Amino acid sequence: MIRRALLILLVGFSVICAIISRGNGPQYGNELVALPKSLSLERKMILVEATAYAKPLFPEGQLTRCETPVGWGTIAVDPDYIPLWSRVRLLTIDKKGRLTHLFNGQEFRALDTGRLIKKYIVDIWMHSEDEALQWGRRSVVLEIVN
User: Fold this and answer.
1) Does pTM surpass 0.90?
2) CATH class of the domain at 27-144
């Protein structure tokens, strides 16, 4: 049986509700929040699986799919699901159901792709292999800013 939790977010003076599925594991790609088209601050939030990649396999400065140097702030995506060049933020859902920004709310850019990056999986570039291994594989909320 799937239980659902109701999440209420305040954006400006607008109240937005999102349904987060719990039970049979995460449903990647579920749109969590879609703001009304009339708002100029339109943002989309989706549940994704986040992994990490790092040097030495992918050294800093190596060119990404968008032909920019890879470095901190770069994520790899499946461009059929998350457009290249998108500006995104990563969030987590704490035990009380609140959204909390990861990495102090830093914006990342979807500049890279990967052979194993399919559908709603994103890969975050880290400075070291130790950081990437410590990150592991997590379910996070991806907020598409643009």
Assistant:
1) no
2) mainly beta
